Amino acid sequence: MAATLCGRLFPKSGWLPLSQSVRHGSKAVTRHRKPLHFLKQKLMAVTEYIPPTPAAPPAALAPRVRKTEEESALAVLLRKDLENLFKECKMIAVVQNNAINAEDLMVLKHKLKRHNISVKFFPNQVTRSFLSNSVYSNMLPLFVGQTVIFVSKEPKVKEMLQALKHSPQMVLLGACIENTLLSYQGILSYSRLPSMTTIQGEIVGGLTMMTSRTVSMLRHHPAHLSALLQQYVKQQGSGDSTNAVTDKETSIIQEAAA
Amino acid sequence: MAASRGAVVLKTVKKIIVQFCPFESNVRSTREFLIMVGSEKARATNMNCEVITEVKHDRSQPMIDITFLDGERLVMKGSRITTQEMLSALQTRCSAKHPQAKAGDKK
């Protein structure tokens, strides 16, 4: 339809104009999204739907609890074994092995068996969990990497050191001898300690030295006197050959002086 | 835990001295490096190379001292570096020393 503007025709009030202007091209139903009328747009904006915020699911709030894995039965067995070892054996040495040969290991084991030292392998995890619960927690940092334990009931350190000299791959890290933790230098000095009897003898000798010294100091003067007299007697005897004073009298003098 | 190229090649190394104190808490990487270097494969690459370990107890930091055949020394303080870094440092230096020899061997 052609757009005709006939606003000037019949300008008297009250009369409907004869022709009304109609804009063409704006249909209600379009293929594209027709922009809303401004008023409608405002209304839609005001009355928009605000959904309620959902509460967090209970799983998100509760902290993640790590499932404590149950220890396998083998680990329990090994732990018991370790406990027994620590109770029975006086000497426990920790050694790191850098890929020792199988035959070298056999030779080493043989050498150590002669002195009743047994070589034990335990998984580090089991050892660490056992040690952290027991008194020996200071040995924990030793058990890192590939480690082997040498256990024996008698602390035979010298023999162990000699056996280890021949295998350079086994590195002695530390030992717990008679419930005392020792480092490598400690082990070396322990091996150089003399036996108990010699130490006891030394202590006894040291104690009695003081008393014997006092006794000798007390007896010093009369002993000196008697020695001088004996000398005099001898000189007299050799000069005159008349035995006026004999040894008997010197002994009497000694008793009188003491 | 293997290095990028598998075994450690020690052809150009004369001596390795590893010293650490096992009661410290920062010696893990040094000990693992020692295991890697002291393994059969690594030792098989060079039978003349000595690996010496010193166990101390004076709270000192762990240290690795490597002497190469041409006299160069590589000192690594292992308290804060990982095993991989140590291995890669050693390998780069080894390959830098003898790139031609290694290429010839591989071919």
TrEMBL record, chain A:
Transport is among the record's keywords: no
Entries under InterPro entries matching the protein: Ribosomal_uL10, Ribosomal_uL10-like_sf, Ribosomal_uL10_bac_type
Keywords, sorted A to Z: Mitochondrion, Ribonucleoprotein, Ribosomal protein, Transit peptide
Highest taxon listed in the record's lineage: Eukaryota
Pfam families the record matches: Ribosomal_L10
Gene Ontology cellular-component terms listed: mitochondrial inner membrane; mitochondrial large ribosomal subunit
Subcellular location: Mitochondrion
Family, as annotated: Belongs to the universal ribosomal protein uL10 family.
Designated name of the protein: Large ribosomal subunit protein uL10m
Lineage: Eukaryota, Metazoa, Chordata, Craniata, Vertebrata
TrEMBL record, chain B:
Organism of provenance: Cyprinus carpio (Common carp)
InterPro entries named in the record: mtLSU_mL53, Ribosomal_mL53
Protein name (record): Large ribosomal subunit protein mL53
Alphabetized UniProt keyword annotations: Mitochondrion, Ribonucleoprotein, Ribosomal protein, Transit peptide
Predominant place of localization: mitochondrion
PANTHER family, sorted: 39S RIBOSOMAL PROTEIN L53, MITOCHONDRIAL, LARGE RIBOSOMAL SUBUNIT PROTEIN ML53
UniProt entry tagged with the keyword Mitochondrion: yes
Gene name of the record: LOC109111485
Family according to the record: Belongs to the mitochondrion-specific ribosomal protein mL53 family.
Superkingdom of this protein's organism: Eukaryota
Record-level GO cellular component terms: mitochondrial large ribosomal subunit
Subcellular localization, as worded in the UniProt entry: Mitochondrion
Keyword Cell inner membrane: no
